[in-house]
Amino acid sequence: MPVTDFTTPEKYQYLNGFQSYHESEALPNTLPIGANSPQKPNYGLYAEKVSGTSFIAPRSENLQTWVYRILPSAAHLPFEAYHEYEPSTNIHQVPQQLRWDPFDLDGEADWIHSLKQLGGVGSPATKTGLGIYIFAAGVSMPPQQAFYSADGDFLVVLQHGVLDIQTELGNLLVRPNEILVIPRGIKYRVDLPGGAVRGYILELYDGHFKLPELGPIGSNGLANARDFQAPVAAFDETEYGPSSWTIFTKYNNAMFTATQSHTPFDVVGWHGLYYPYKYDLGRFNAIGSISFDHPDPSIFTVLTNPTADFVVFPPRWLVQEDTFRPPWFHRNTMSEFMGLVLGEYDAKVGGGFRPAGASLHNIMSAHGPDADAHAPASEAELTPTKVGEGSMAFMFESPLMIGVTDWGLEKCRKVQPGYNAESWVPLKRHFKMPTGGIGKETKVSS
Ligand SMILES: O=C(O)Cc1cc(O)ccc1O
Ligand SMILES: [Fe+2]
């Protein structure tokens, strides 16, 4: 179900729509009419353009936003290397199926220092591939600090807690079961009004997410465009005088800082297509088989990109007849990283895949339901059944071979050594040779 038990306070107002052209102003008449860069923008603001795609990208892909701000972003002192954040970028491509116990909450770290790279492939420098992060933060970012990643778009899957995010383009409150996308280069800071937070991040080094085509599904279904929410323009009204800010930048997976004597949250109005947004996974309209067989998990795609799809497994009814209903056993040309926001995933009932844990089934590494899920599902009476009640599993599915960092393999100390032994090695042989031998009888009744 969608997150409904919350009245959105005044500070959090949203513009609805996915990749809709939005415009928003915190003061009336901020945006120039019929032009983008007038000689003197209103209120003595500076015009600045933020490009999220190449200038010449086709219209259907082109994402740019004009911001009207008190001082341009360029007004800062030189960048310096920052060594108190050591990213784990040594990556190992391994065929081993991996599963991690729940990652610990961390009461000490702020957003930036909580980012732990678990895996990835490719390079931000050549804009190929992706990074996968686990975050566990316990404190708000210190005042007068902001962060942006120059490496790619962050898709944040919040597993625990509440994120109060101030971005250049406005404020977003992200609650459990919601996801957040912050595009490359957009500055933000993260406060934790409810204490500790934890979750997963997919960073796309290339391009941006889109909604999947719906084909024969028609014009509505899956994640509907109107349920994506972008912030309205808001600026630090009390902070537009001189102040001392530190801007952190993740740049080719290293960290840099630059100081400046003004708030980065000084955008009074903006218009364009390049902005952060959030989405409540409870609004996902799940579609599935109403006759027989189990569709490919792509039927649950929320957002797509050639580098990775974001797929969820929401609560849903299973009604298929004469069908083994959990996911089939399989090997893919894709790699599959899975996480669990809450509840239990129907293919893994053996207790090893838990909320805040994860799994990785890499290219052509075989997997499927564990023995504890397979046995009852083969015998179950096939009445309509609700699965995933109170649950939300998700998958980052990529055609690329995802590597695992030193942190992911060892330092996190969460890898389950007995994954294969517990899940699939116990599967029993049920094969029966036809009486009379091969070729004599083709149908065997059990
Ligand atoms: O491995 C998994 O659990 C994810 C998955 C689910 C499904 O329904 C079909 C294929 C698939 O990879
Ligand atoms: Fe799979």
Describe this structure in words.
This protein has 446 residues and is mostly beta strands. It has a domain at 284-423: Jelly Rolls (Sandwich), CATH 2.60.120. Helix content is 5%, strand content 33%. The strands form 6 sheets. It has a 10-stranded antiparallel sheet. The protein has a 6-stranded antiparallel sheet with strand order 7-26-25-28-23-22, with no helix packed on it. Strands 2-20-4-3 form a 4-stranded antiparallel sheet, with no helix packed on it. Bound molecules: 2-(3,6-dihydroxyphenyl)acetic acid and fe (ii) ion (FE2). Residues 330, 336, 361, 367 line the site of fe (ii) ion.
Shape: globular
* Portion in beta strands: 25-35%
The assigned structural class equals mainly beta
Which residues sit in consecutive blocks of at least 5 with pLDDT less than 50? none
Report strand order across the widest sheet: 1-17-21-14-11-16-9-8-29-6
What's the architecture of the domain at 284-423 in CATH terms? Sandwich
Overall helicity: under 10%
CATH topology of the domain at 284-423: Jelly Rolls
Largest sheet: 10 strands, antiparallel
Q: What is the CATH superfamily label of the domain at 284-423?
A: Jelly Rolls
Distance between the termini: 41 Å
Associated small molecules: 2-(3,6-dihydroxyphenyl)acetic acid, fe (ii) ion
CATH class of the domain at 284-423: Mainly Beta
- Report the strand count: 29
Report Rg: 24 Å
Mean pLDDT: 94
Q: Number of helix segments? A: 4
